[in-house]
Every structure is written in C-alpha cells, then in structure tokens.
Amino acid sequence: MKKITYLVFLFPLLMLIGxxxxxxxxxxxxxxxxxxxxxxxxxxxxxxxxxLSWQHWDSPFEVVLLGxxxxxxxxxxxxxxxxxxxxxxxxxxxxxxxLKAVILPLFGSLPLKIVNNxxxxxxxxxxxxxxxxPIEYTAEWFPVKPKGHIINFDVTWLGLREGDxxxxxxxxxxxxxxxxxxxGFTNKLFxxxxxxxxxxxxxxxxxxxxxxxxxxxx
Length: 218
Description:
Blueprint: E1 37-47, E2 62-69, E3 74-80, E4 86-92, E5 95-104, E6 112-116, E7 125-128, E8 150-161, E9 172-173, E10 175-181, E11 185-189, E12 196-199, H1 202-209
Parallel strand pairs: 1-8
Antiparallel strand pairs: 1-4, 2-3, 2-5, 5-6, 6-7, 7-9, 8-10, 11-12
C-alpha cells in the first residue's frame, strides 16, 4: 500500500458511467469485430515532489480515454493498466483519440486524479484538488489517429511536481510535466532523482502477450 504524507491530493473514487469499459489489467483481449479498432498504450507516473513518499507508481491504475468518432460523437473509456502501465481497449469505433485522465488509487477509494482539458496541443495535465469536481468527458484536441486497425498511444510519462497554492478558487494544484515517447525505450532516466525505466512499444508488448490474436492479421 502506498503512503502519502498529507491528504490534500486525495479524492473520492470516481464512478464512471456511459460507455466506460474496464478490462481489469490486460487479462484478456477481445477478438476484432468488423471495422473496429484496437487501442494500446502505456503510462508511467513518476513522483518528483518531496511531499509524496512514493517515487514511481508500480501498481495497476486507471486511464480515461476519449474518442471522437467520424460522426462527431465523443465516447469515453476507462481501462485498468497492468503494473507497468500498459493498457488496451479492443473494438472501438473509427476516429481520433486522446488521453484525458489518469487515476491513481492511493488509498483504494481515495484516488489522485491527473487530468488534461484537451483544448489544444498546448493543454497541460493538472492534479485535480477538489473531490466534488468530476472529470468532464469533453475535448477539442484528439491527437492520436489510427494506423491500420491499431490506435497506439505510445508511452506517456507524467512527472508530478510541487506547486504553490496561491489561488484557492482553482480546481487544480501542483504541476505535472508530461512527455510522449514513440517506439519504446531502454534504460531511460526521466528525472534526476527518479528510476531508470525500460518500456517496449505498446504494440510489441500487447502482441507478445496475445500472440495468437486476430488483431495482428488485420
């Protein structure tokens, strides 16, 4: 169980509704349905703040994805990663997609939420502060497009930093540094006090885990 030195970043568990899907940490991979697509990706969350006692999140957590379909409708999906942060969502419709939020279950039912408003390519991730503020399933910027029948989110690294809390009217607190890396990497140091990480391209990782899936024949 992870520990934290103060509770200002803890929030009630978000109950996602609508078209949300939870795959339980890469336990299975549903076979393709005609004209549908497979999402794969990886997220690393590294603590670079002295105020939090953990350094790197090494347990399953949730990511929230948004997709804008070709007809303009927006769907949202919630998926549980494995311990290394890999995730997949099978059989989503054609469209463009985005990573909306990451939810870390710090004390089980009291998660830390990292959210992006996705209004432009310059949009930043922020830590949500107020427990009564839900994640809004809205976006104007959807950067991830299909290649074939695969939608690859690559690897997203998020580094949590301290931030001055001067304006208590805001719904966010602290700073989050983010970086997206394609094609995987080996023995990379993201932050000077952090861990050295290695991650395969999510497509390669998921393909190794489910080598006989029909997704790889599309």
